[in-house]
Design brief:
The structure holds 3 protein chains of 3 kinds. By secondary structure, chain B is an all-alpha fold. Chain B is built from 11 helices and no strands. In chain B, 50% of the residues are buried. In chain C, strand 1, helix 5 and strand 2 form a beta-alpha-beta unit. Classes of the chains: A mainly alpha, B mainly alpha, C alpha/beta. At the A-C interface, helix 4 and helix 12 of A face helix 2, helix 6, strand 6 and helix 16 of C.
Chain lengths: 294, 262, 381
């Protein structure tokens, strides 16, 4: 074994790039085969005319892309972006304190992390139905508020934008907490102790040491929340009463009742491209900073 | 401290619906509309619902397999991106974001098309393939966040002292990286266990996962046996993770490179 | 029919009869010319009449011995608890049973090439699509000895003439369920959804065909209409009704009907029956302007590997006691007359008078895009 190992290591040492690609290899192969290739097929579909019964017919057309740039669909896209940004902001405001606390909780860390993740071992649907029960006109929240005399008549909580936001935040919170925790957890407390000795207040310590060092986690968390929330549709349906369309609902519908696969594919590609551009732009901006921080 | 208050509220928010759903697994009303008495009927019903039990089995198998694969491949990818300069690096980075950005339904349908073209029969294998494909990027992001703040001096010391790369990785890098890998793996597990949209397209005959079974029940008949199985899952995972945590903690304490702050 | 198309149409029919066109191409071209699906279907059937002397070879062929496996793909929660187990025991066949949520999901999988299913259960309007794309095969009636248990209403469906490809499974109507203890006005018309006083207490289904269809019937049009003027009016009506709606929600609204959060809901009769079991004050009405009657049917995909077992299954569920058990569990109507007689609370077959205002939905073909556009605009309003 060690003979083969030595030979492998010697070979790797001679080719630094090979080292990188050996690490990248398996993962990339998987993604190219089972992610990129299917997407290429979809891209082809988005340029073909719609089949009479669904699916596609041979041919080439740009009509689906043209159709997407109609105010009707752009308005839906805009609304989705607003929702996603809102959800991300709330997740950050609410999730950061939790991640911070868990990172500094010493031996309670594992338990607290576990409690963050535990709700997600149940089914998304069952949790959502539980939320429906809580938010309904005759639901728990209203019943409690009425009994306490804080309100006279039930509040309309369910099937409102508020309920959708609540549902989105609920669904994506661990995606924010976990990366921030991972970042904070390796923070060296001696840095903060040093700052304190030098006369910094706790607030300054946070602002100038803790937060900047947790930034990779924050950014990761924001991406992990914003991007998938752009594609979500079940929450808007179940908690929003299906009264408003997010772009995810539109796309889902194209592959379902509307049987317009090419249009659905085109819409998906536009959304995907948009988000990708935003991500790449951010990475370009970040790149120099990351090298400097080392 | 205000911080603790916020955290407590958040935990309450996360768990209130769970408490509700557990309570309703004992409710003698089919529609979970109001409390109508205590009953164990829904748990008895579960024994009859072979589809629910089977769905749980499939979900566990798929989630375990896809988590193991994603965690391994994802960690390798993160290492490559965080530690190495190579041609095409930016492109790989960007490419890794695409699975997260793509709507699930697109991933699901496109994979179905691929499997049909390859004449691959749909089953557990195709579900695992799909789950790894969409959770890899998540693992990479989490592990990379951890890597990017990690102090490389320990690894450099090990190399100077004569350890080869593989040993250094195994005994210095990996233990430091481990919490990140675990966080990434947990994420991958949740993603797989709870996935509905993609799985519904790539599951084959006889391989419906739990979310598919539950969604089916919920669309037509919201029956509290769903609540019953969720409660059981909660209890079992609490027990399992408790045991896992104990062994993790013991492992951490015995590692000579555990955090200096401890 | 448009006179201008006459010549082209004659040529098309001639090509079909002269076997220069396959049935499938005929359908595609006919729809492309703007014919409705029913018209195309009738033409196909009419051409078929000439060839009645020689029955298609498949029908009289023998399917061989009973296989040991059967793979069923059905809607979720659409069967009694022990139907499958009893079948397995009696025939020694191992059954795998999977479920889906929508016709489109099922079709998408079949169209993309998913194989492995021996039985599927599409809703009526999907059947012509499956036939025209060769995704399902004609049945061998000789194995279906219990055929005559079916009610005549369901023996010759407009969506599958002569029931060559289908065995009806369950049927239902989409009317209005309401709490008669909460609503003091009479509820008998789609107009209730414009009533401001009931604002915030009403729901319609999250289904383009049902909502737009209801609004079309409200104005006296067919719920299969593809005329732009009628559709535009339906869109306006739906948008006018939207502010009064609490949500677009289909079967899961049952719980809120029972709890009293919702007072008026567009709902299927089977789901209403289930709600009534927990809350007797839930009433059901077929609006006077008319509404949908639909049925789901068993079919055999072309890629099925166990056709004999599939036929045995179909014949099994045509037995009165089995059909009754299924309906008892699902709450929907059984198309089986003898089964209906065994039920304590049967969903009664529609009377002749009611039948006049019930309409089966048919596939919209290329006009699906127009309907979808309208549904998007309603949702975005």
């Amino acid at each position: 074994m060690s003979g083969a190992r030595r030979r492998l290591l010697a070979w790797l040492q001679r080719r630094p790039a090979a080292r990188a690609w050996a690490l990248l290899g398996p993962g990339m192969v998987w993604l190219v085969l089972f992610f990129l290739l299917p997407l290429v097929i979809m891209a082809a579909y988005s340029l073909m005319p719609r089949g009479t019964y669904g699916g596609v017919q041979p041919g080439f057309t740009l009509e689906h892309y043209r159709r997407f740039f109609d105010p009707l669909y752009l308005a839906i896209l805009r609304r989705t972006v607003v929702w996603s940004v809102g959800c991300t902001v709330v997740c950050l405001l609410v999730g950061y304190p939790v991640a911070y606390l868990v990172a500094r909780a010493g031996r309670w860390r594992a338990v607290l992390l576990f409690l963050v993740v535990l709700p997600f071992w149940t089914s998304f649907l069952v949790r959502t139905f539980a939320m429906i029960f809580l938010l309904r006109d005759g639901g728990l929240v209203n019943t409690v508020l009425l009994r306490l005399g804080l309100i006279d008549a039930p509040l309309t909580l369910l099937y409102t934008p508020f309920a959708v936001l609540l549902g989105l935040v609920y669904g994506f919170l661990p995606f924010m907490i976990l990366p921030i925790y991972a970042s904070l957890e390796k923070l060296d407390p001696t840095l903060l102790e040093a700052a304190e000795t030098l006369g910094a207040t706790p607030a300054a310590g946070f602002r100038r040491i803790t937060f900047p060092l947790s930034l990779p986690g924050v950014v990761a968390g924001c991406f992990l929340v914003f991007i998938p929330s752009m594609g979500s549709f079940l929450t808007a349906d179940l908690l929003g009463g299906a009264k408003q369309l997010m772009i995810g609902n539109l796309i889902q519908n194209q592959f379902a009742a509307a049987r317009n696969w090419p249009f659905g594919s085109a819409a998906s590609f536009v959304v995907t491209a948009l988000v990708l551009v935003a991500v790449i732009t951010y990475l370009r901006v970040r790149e120099p900073a990351a090298d400097g921080a080392r | 401290m205000g911080l603790v208050a916020v955290a407590v509220l958040v935990y309450a928010f996360l768990h209130l619906p769970i408490l509700v759903l557990v309570a309703f697994s004992f409710n003698a009303s089919k529609f979970s509309a109001e409390w109508r008495g205590f009953t164990l009927e829904w748990y008895h019903r579960l024994l009859e619902r072979a589809d629910v039990i089977h769905g749980l089995e499939i979900s566990l198998v798929v989630a375990t397999a896809s988590t193991a694969i994603s965690a391994a491949l994802g960690t390798l990818l993160a290492l490559a991106l965080a530690r190495h300069r190579f041609l095409g690096r930016r492109m790989v980075e960007g490419f890794l974001y695409v699975p997260i950005v793509t709507p699930e339904i697109v991933v699901g349908i496109s994979l179905l098309l691929l499997f049909a073209l390859l004449r691959l029969p749909l089953g557990v294998a195709t579900i695992v393939i799909a789950h790894v494909a969409f959770s890899l990027s998540f693992v990479v992001i989490v592990v990379r966040a951890r890597l990017e703040g990690m102090d490389t001096s320990l690894e450099e010391a090990a190399l100077i002292l004569g350890a080869d790369e593989i040993t250094t990785f195994r005994r210095v890098t990996l233990p430091q990286l481990w919490p990140g890998v675990v966080a990434g793996a947990l994420l991958a597990f949740i993603l797989s266990f709870d996935d509905f949209v993609i799985t519904s397209f790539v599951a084959g005959s006889g391989t419906s996962t739990l979310p598919i079974v539950v969604y089916g029940m919920a669309r037509r008949n919201v029956e509290p046996s769903i609540n019953a199985i969720s409660t059981i899952i909660l209890v079992v995972t609490t027990a399992v993770l408790y045991v896992a945590e104990r062994s993790l903690v013991r492992g951490e304490r015995s590692s000579p490179i555990s955090r200096r702050s401890a | 029919m448009n006179v201008g198309r006459g010549g082209a149409l004659e040529r098309l029919v001639g090509d079909l009869q002269g076997a220069r066109l396959s049935r499938r191409e005929f359908v595609a071209r006919g729809l492309g010319m703007g014919l409705g699906l029913e018209a195309v279907g009738s033409l196909l059937a009419a051409c078929g009449e000439r060839e009645r002397e020689k029955p298609p070879a498949a029908q009289s062929a023998d399917l061989g011995p009973l296989e040991r496996e059967l793979h069923i793909y059905n809607w979720s929660d659409y069967i009694a608890q022990d139907t499958v187990a009893n079948f397995e025991r009696e025939f020694g066949v191992r059954v795998t049973y999977d479920t889906y949520e929508s016709n489109e999901e099922m079709i998408a999988k079949l169209q993309a090439g998913a194989t492995g299913y021996d039985i599927i259960v599409p809703t009526g309007y999907v059947v012509p699509v499956l036939v025209a794309t060769d995704l399902i095969v004609p049945l061998h009636r000789k194995y279906l000895t219990n055929w005559n248990n079916l009610s005549p209403i369901f023996q010759n469906l407009p969506t599958d003439p002569g029931n060559a490809h289908t065995v009806p499974w369950q049927w239902g109507t989409s009317g209005i369920a309401y709490r008669r203890d909460k609503v003091n006005t009479a509820v008998d018309s789609w107009a209730v959804f414009f009533d401001r006083r009931l604002g915030g207490k009403m729901t319609m289904m999250d289904d383009a065909r049902e909502v737009i269809g209801a609004m079309l019937r409200y104005r006296g049009h067919s719920l299969n209409s593809v005329r732009p003027a009628e559709l535009a009016q339906a869109k306006q009506d739906a948008i006018a009704a939207k502010p009064q709606l609490k949500a677009y929600i289909s079967a899961p609204v049952k719980g809120q009907l029972v709890s009293g959060d919702v007072w008026v809901a567009q709902l299927w009769n089977g789901d209403t029956v289930q709600a009534q079991a927990e809350e007797p004050n839930v009433a059901y009405v077929l609006p006077k302007e008319g509404c949908t009657i639909w049925n789901d049917s068993l079919c055999i995909p072309a890629s099925a590997r166990h056709p004999r077992a599939a036929h045995e299954w179909m014949n099994y569920i045509l037995r009165p006691e089995v059909g009754a058990a299924i309906s008892r569990a699902t709450g929907y109507g059984t198309p089986n007359v003898d089964a209906a007689r065994l039920l304590e609370h049967p969903v009664t077959f529609p009377t002749a008078e009611e039948l006049k205002r019930l309409e089966f939905p048919v596939d919209l073909g290329p006009d699906t895009a127009a309907w979808d556009q309208i549904w998007t605009e309603i949702k975005a309003a």
